[in-house]
Amino acid sequence: MVQPVSDLDWVTVFRSAEHTAEEEASAACELLRNQGIRAALADADTPGVPFGTWEVRVPATEGARAEAIIAVQGEETAPHGDASHDMDLVTLFTSDAHNAEMEAMAIQGILEAGGIPSVLVGFQAMPSLPFEVRVPSARADEARRLIAESQAGGPEAAELAEKASERPE
């Protein structure tokens, strides 16, 4: 339940607009309450809170302590991702030709079929800007090989692969 926060002596110690914002704010509010801090949830119905955002507010006198508690909790629960550079993205393809988007999508399709994750970078509304296909650096050589094999096979190989993937009727 969202509690009204009308007292001007309250400060925001947590804010999120993520899709999990309500759950995160509720958890932060409960954490603070368990530590003896008066905390209130605030959503877009609360003045000053943007649409889609959830906040946790506390009395200003408890703000520093609340922020410290939330910071410690965040460090304990934050995911520890892969710190290596293996997942850094490298540009495999770039073009600003008139058909750059179609070519980038074709390359992305080849990579997807080969099990290589990729990211298409471009802005359809601004076709004068280049389109790029990026892959994790650890898979860049494999991606280049896959594209080269596809280009070497030509349209005939693509047709054969398509027919092989079709179901017999």
List the helices and strands and how they pair.
Blueprint: E1 10-16, H1 21-34, E2 40-42, E3 54-59, H2 63-77, E4 89-95, H3 100-113, E5 119-121, E6 131-136, H4 140-165
Antiparallel strand pairs: 1-3, 2-3, 4-6, 5-6
Strand order of the largest sheet: 1-3-2
Sketch the topology as an H/E string, one letter per element: EHEEHEHEEH
Question: Which class best fits the helix and strand makeup?
Answer: alpha+beta
DSSP helical segment count: 4
Domain module count = 2
The rounded Rg comes to: 25 Å
**What is the CATH first-level class name of the largest domain?**
Alpha Beta
Beta-strand content bin:
15-25%
- State mean pLDDT (0 to 100 scale): 82
For the secondary structure, the number of strands is 6
Distance between the termini: 57 Å
What does this 3D model show about the protein?
- With 169 residues, the protein is of the alpha+beta class.
- The chain has 2 domains: 10-77, Hypothetical protein rpa1041 (Alpha-Beta Plaits); 89-165, Alpha-Beta Plaits, CATH 3.30.70.
- The protein is built from 4 helices and 6 strands.
- The strands form 2 sheets. The chain has a 3-stranded antiparallel sheet. The chain has a 3-stranded antiparallel sheet with strand order 4-6-5.
- The relative contact order is 0.11.
